[in-house]
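subagent[fold] <- orchestrator: predict structure for attached chain, return tokens only, no commentary.
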Amino acid sequence: MLIDTIALELYSHTEQWKEQGHLFLHDDFFMLREFGFASREFLVPSQPYLLRDGRVVLVRQGVARYTFNLVEYEFVAGDLVVFFGDTLIEKRSLSPDFQLDAFSFHPSSRNEELIILHSSLMKDSTRTIIDQHLSLIWSLAQQQPFPDENVRMQVESLLHFVSLQQAESTATKPASHQEETLRRFISLVSRHASRERTIPFYADRLCIAPHYLSTLIKQLSGKTVMQWVNQTVVKEIKVWLAYSDETASQIADRLNFPHPSSLTKFFKRETGLTPTEYRQEIGAIKDA
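subagent[fold] -> orchestrator:
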């Protein structure tokens, strides 16, 4: 299994990032405080990265635009974002003053959805409790030996609190049935596109007719079902090409292509490059 590629960037280039803010690294846990990625190049634009583990991110200042599982979001100071792992992420833009707090965690469930608490909707008391959790987790992480269980308990406490706040905010403005179907569809694609690439599969999971699913997704998102699926698969291929030494044959097998030539033809059609050309191109960018 491919490791968490953003964690790999931090652990592989530690000295480059220490000057950006407070950085704590320990085995399979990291935490950032008042960290400013905008002052250095972090994450190649248009190159997808894979979050295997979960993340809690609090935007301290500035504005960031990222795509998560093909959906673009804008985050501003005060926004809190929680990912529960297996997320494809792409950087769009960061303001020069962008700064965040963040830490990694191992999700207890891979089926939980993205949580976003927007600063404009967050009560002062909610913001205070989140800050208190982050400060306590940071303080605990500095202890020797590393107190795994204490950190885990505080992380679970914060996640539970945030989930309750999101449930409260969505209860006041519930999504329509069609919006909920689109959300569930995108979630299914992000989890299954590497193995399942047929419209009936997703229609069956959503308990609706394939034709209705095709019509609904096109109307709501402007993209067809297969565009969602194919673009997700392309991004997964890009991650494997950029962050593994696996051959096209091995990647084809991993992503359920019948043979390597099928993967090459598919990738060339979608990107204009062969897997080998893309690997060379992204390698040159990362080495620059």
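orchestrator: received. Logging for downstream: Strands lie at 22-26, 29-35, 49-51, 54-61, 63-68, 71-76, 80-83, 87-94, 99-105, 115-117. Residues 196 and 256 are 8 Å apart (CA to CA).
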